[in-house]
Each structure stands twice: as C-alpha cells, then as structure tokens.
Amino acid sequence: MTVETVEQKVAPRLKLKYREELAAKLHEQFGYANVMQRPTVAKVIVNMGVGDAARDSKLITGAINDLAAITGQKPMVTKARKSIAQFKLREGQPIGAHVTLRGDRMWEFLDRLVSVALPRIRDFRGLAPKQFDGRGNYTFGLNEQSMFHEIDQDKIDRVRGMDITVVTTANTDDEGRALLRLLGFPFKES
C-alpha cells in the first residue's frame, strides 16, 4: 500500500483579506450595481533596466538573479529594439529584465512589498499618490533592491533600481487609489 499525501493549498493572506473585507468596502464606497465592477489587481510587473549591460554583459546576470530571488519567478530578458551609436547599443543586446506576476504569486509579492519591503526603505515618507496613469494603474520606482529580505546584503555586486507597475481593473484613478490604499499601500497625504 502506498501512502498518499494531500497538500492543501492555502490562499495568500492579502487575497483572503481582499475577498472577505476589502471588496465589500469598495462596493459600498463606490456603489457598484454589480459585484463584477469591483476593482481588483490584475497583474504586477517588475522591471529592472540595466543600461550598463551594453558595456558589461555580466551585469545582466546579476539583475536576473536578483529579480528571480525577489519575485520567485524566472525573468524575461529585455533586448534593445534598435541600435543607438551614441549609447554604444546594438540591436538585440540585453539591456534589462522584467517579470509579470499573476495569481497567487502576485498576491504574495504585494503582501511582502507592503508589509516588509516598503517599511525597510530608509527615510521613507510614503508613495506619491499622483503616479496613476488615468486608468487606475499605479507605477512607482525603487532605487535599490536591498529592501527585499530575499536579497543577501553581502552578495550585492551593485545597487540596482526597479520599476513596479500594479495593473488594476479599476476604471478611474480614484477607484485604483482606493483599492491600493485598502490593500495597505502607504500613500503620502496631500
């Protein structure tokens, strides 16, 4: 006889909080006619540009390793679309890496970002509340990767910044801002 182990999948903490509490608050705040109109997070894109990779190809491997450690997913390498002589850049040369997170991985990344990484930023005063794109999507930049606890401080070869885009299903910036504020994003008070 074989013994079968049954693994029970546990939903991410932030996803459960959204389903049980926050979705109802959004519904009440904006008075949606249908529950399908409630905004939610569709995907999170983490982009790390490495412009110096045109001169030193080893830099892109460090960015890929850092991004893989932070997100838990293998990054795609971004290549130059056309040659630019002034930047010593050739078409097809790797110049960055990005990861698109969806589903449970996205919720867990957002939870770690809001509860662990952002509070570790030195002299952090909150995220700018006006960096929405008009359709409820929010983009912000971080200037170093060391605030994520997955990165070993002693093994950082160089400081790399990254852009994080949170794509929501909200139709307006106000709905997107309300959603992210309820999820725990620390916006500056204007």
Looking across the biggest beta sheet, what order are the strands in? 2-3-1-5-4
User: Distance between the terminal alpha carbons, to the nearest Å?
Assistant: 66 Å
Mean pLDDT: 84
Work out the strand percent: 15-25%
What is the count of helical runs?
4
- Unreliable runs: none
Largest sheet: 5 strands, antiparallel
Q: Roughly what percent helix?
A: 25-40%
What's the SSE pattern? HEHEEHEEH
Describe this structure in words.
This protein is of the alpha+beta class and 190 residues long. It has four helices and five strands. The protein has a five-stranded antiparallel beta sheet with strand order 2-3-1-5-4. Helix 1 packs across helix 4. It is globular. The model has no long low-confidence stretch (mean pLDDT 84).
What labels describe this entry?
five-stranded antiparallel sheet, 4 helices, single chain, 190 residues, alpha+beta
